[in-house]
Amino acid sequence: MNTLFADTLRKLRVEKGLSQLQLANQVIVTRSAVSRWENGTRLPDAAMITRLSKILEVDVGTLLYPSVENTESPNIIMVDDSRVILSDSLAVLEEVLPNAEITGFIWPNEAIEYARVNRIALAFLDIELGTASGFDLCSTLLEISPLTNVVYLTAYPDYSLDAWDTDACGFMVKPLTPEGVIRQLGRLRYPLPQGGEIK
């Protein structure tokens, strides 16, 4: 259930004085589609969220991260089975995104458990995670929250074609650099909330 998005959409629609049918007509969907979005059983895709933001005259971040205020921080995770690489990469992320809550994980299962109780705005995933796969982890994280941005970080450029067959929004070759992170932030499917300002 995506109740946070649902409640925000309903509130913004009512504030604009629109019925579900009127909003549906403007975004060119059925009224039942709007109803499913507002009861939390479905989420619109990225293109539809962009269309909704224009009609409701709010930015995309307001729709996706309504409960995050300027003083709050987006959750960003990194999963890599190398403790050294993880430590160095977390330092880069903290430099670029000083207002974010950044957490590193060596074990994919720990990252999954964290994602079940925390809204993850952005996940950087190694592809080779011991016996586990970053591709599988990406799929699980997106099942938990379809609004999570996933960027692969790998030492093997050959994985790039396989990566684009998933629902990730980015691919980076190690090592992680501030410039590379900033480039990826500009390509995110769902922009970070205001707490994720770039330094």
Going by helix content, strand content and strand pairing, the class is alpha/beta
Radius of gyration using CA atoms only: 18 Å
How do the strands of the widest beta sheet line up side by side?
A: 2-1-3-6-7
Give the percentage of residues in beta strands: 15-25%
Annotated CATH architecture of the largest domain: 3-Layer(aba) Sandwich
| CATH T-level fold name of the largest domain | Rossmann fold
- The H-and-E topology, N to C, reads as HHHHHEHEHEEEHEHEH
Tally of individual domains: 2
Described by strand count, sense and barrel closure, the largest sheet is: 5 strands, parallel
User: Helix tally?
Assistant: 10
CATH homologous superfamily classification of the largest domain: Response regulator
- CA(first)-CA(last) distance: 34 Å
**Helicity level:** 40-55%
CATH C-level category of the largest domain: Alpha Beta
Average pLDDT metric: 86
Q: Which of globular, elongated, flat, extended, rod-shaped describes the shape?
A: elongated
Secondary structure tally: strands: 7
- Uncertain ranges: 67-71
Strand and helix map with partners:
Blueprint: H1 3-15, H2 20-27, H3 31-38, H4 46-56, H5 60-64, E1 75-79, H6 83-96, E2 101-105, H7 108-117, E3 120-125, E4 128-129, E5 132-133, H8 134-144, E6 149-154, H9 160-163, E7 170-173, H10 178-185
Parallel strand pairs: 1-2, 1-3, 3-6, 6-7
Antiparallel strand pairs: 4-5
Helix pairs in contact: 2-3, 7-8
